[in-house]
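Repro:
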Amino acid sequence: MKYMVRAVSRDLNGKVTDIADTWPLNATTVEDAKAEVDRQHWREPGDVANTFEITDESGNALTWRPFRKGSKPASWS
């Protein structure tokens, strides 16, 4: 299965309000996809996005996490 990571904006209720960008991943499992995203050095998103989502090739969100929680990356839901 192919996985993608996308930077999205979520409102206070957790609803996705905007998809800022999408990138392909090399991972073959969801756990590998999480680790691949966590290893990357991402620029601060600014006002556009506040969350990462890992999706399948159809665009269905499989897991997500906020960009940061304090000074550390947040955990995956």
